[in-house]
């Protein structure tokens, strides 16, 4: 279907990368400058627009966070978005990012990036459980948690199936040919569910904060909601990049438009 | 891409219909038997498994609801799921449900179903605002509301564009040919965003109820979460039905498998 769009995948990978950077910065600013501790609460508004301050703050905050093992909960959104979703998205797009690279190389990058994404996702989920257990919060009752556990399980099954069928030992050629479109389709289904889970997580956390008194129309609420919108657009760009062809043939009878 | 799956769309439309019925029943049971008023609170557990009782209850509840104009809020999920999402899904699948019907007829059904879906969706959104305003609840601060308003706006724009380009007055043939895959792609993007909005709405409402004391692992929580899962699977079936071909050609050199 997307092959009929008449455009190639590469521009969508550029858009996806720009949106990935935006989403990563937004979730870091949220978790570190809004949620990261008292030291960063004082001048939030300036920090959002002050890149030098954000860099210093990022470094200090990561050191503080991992050394003191404080506030595991807020490691969860960072690992899930940057580790799990963005790395997984890069894995999905890799064939379109480097269309001229040797196919075996891109396949190896594809499966390694997905493996790292799953591991970081699992650590991120561990952080959520750890935070819940240490704070006396119930586990696994929300749609976010259900979809999240279901999605990472399907993601792992998809990875194992892909490894066995397409990498080692590899299925017979006609099985691979038949299985590939299902691998793409099921992979994109799991990917879209992952994005939906992220949206649910952003909304859930913000709803908890707002029911504890956070301003419904404040800077933090808007930042988190806009992060949700950026993640949705990012996911759309990744899906189009995945289904659009790496190369588009000129239709017959059309002269290419001169560049200058 | 889905054309390479080697299966035709029809079976996915059957799966989608079964899931649509399941989701519709689930949201009705939720809104009527769990949320519908004191009269239905007494024997919830029996009602879930008692179809006769549900039918009577449905009738009584709809009469009570619309005559007394009580509890507008719970009309919102019913209209959004059954009116907006399920009717819109039927509109998307119509070309695959009736592949042998005259193309102009299916196109007319497609645009009429989408129009009804948008109107019912708009009424459903009106119910949410009305409920908020009469209960002193803030409007348009959540990701659910942002995505929802954005999605129905894009849906309307898509409808107007489709009407003008493909129905009346209709664009030039080469423009239509070029625009059709974008119509499908953008339509599916809006559709998936609509599903994501529904998931956010289910989670948001349940989170509010749970923060007011509803059992996190109770029957109602499980019903709403499972409704979310069914809606996700339903959406996947609709998307596959939309992109899979109506007919699949036998690959060359393959004898068809005998039926008996």
Automatic annotation (TrEMBL), chains A, B:
Membrane topology term: Multi-pass membrane protein
Top-rank taxon: Eukaryota
GO CC annotation terms, alphabetical: membrane
Transmembrane segment boundaries: 12-35, 47-66, 78-98, 110-131, 143-168, 180-202, 222-244
Keywords: Electron transport, Heme, Iron, Membrane, Metal-binding, Oxidoreductase, Transmembrane, Transmembrane helix, Transport
Pfam family name, one: Cytochrom_B561
Record-level Gene Ontology MF annotations: metal ion binding; oxidoreductase activity
Record has Secreted as a keyword: no
CC cofactor: heme b
Subcellular location: Membrane
Classification via CDD domains: Cyt_b561_ACYB-1_like
The keyword Metal-binding belongs to this UniProt entry's keyword annotation: yes
Stretches assigned to the Cytochrome b561 domain: 15-243
Function recorded in the entry: Two-heme-containing cytochrome. Catalyzes ascorbate-dependent trans-membrane electron transfer by utilizing a concerted H(+)/e(-) transfer mechanism.
Protein name per the record: Cytochrome b561 domain-containing protein
Lineage: Eukaryota, Viridiplantae, Streptophyta, Embryophyta, Tracheophyta
């Amino acid at each position: 279907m997307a092959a009929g769009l008449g455009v190639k995948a590469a521009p969508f990978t550029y858009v996806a990368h720009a949106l990935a950077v935006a989403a990563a910065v937004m979730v870091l600013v949220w978790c570190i400058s809004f949620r990261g501790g008292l030291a960063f609460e004082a001048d939030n508004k300036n920090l959002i627009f002050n890149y030098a301050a954000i860099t210093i703050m990022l470094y200090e905050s990561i050191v503080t966070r991992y050394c003191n093992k404080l506030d595991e909960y807020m490691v969860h959104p960072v690992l899930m978005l940057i580790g799990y979703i963005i790395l997984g998205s890069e894995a999905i797009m890799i064939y379109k990012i480097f269309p001229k690279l040797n196919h075996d190389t891109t396949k190896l990058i594809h499966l390694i990036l997905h493996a790292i994404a799953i591991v970081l996702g699992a650590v991120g989920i561990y952080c959520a459980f750890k935070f819940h257990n240490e704070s006396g919060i119930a586990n696994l009752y929300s749609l976010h948690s259900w979809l999240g556990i279901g999605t990472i399980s399907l993601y792992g099954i998809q990875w194992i199936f892909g490894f066995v069928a397409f990498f080692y030992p590899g299925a017979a050629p006609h099985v691979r040919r038949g299985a590939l479109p299902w691998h793409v389709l099921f992979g994109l289904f799991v990917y879209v569910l992952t994005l939906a889970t992220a949206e649910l997580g952003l909304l859930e956390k913000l709803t908890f904060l707002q029911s504890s008194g956070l301003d419904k129309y404040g800077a933090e609420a808007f930042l988190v909601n806009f992060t949700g919108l950026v993640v949705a657009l990012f996911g759309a760009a990744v899906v189009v990049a995945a289904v659009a062809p790496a190369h588009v043939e000129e239709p017959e009878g059309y002269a290419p438009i001169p560049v200058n």
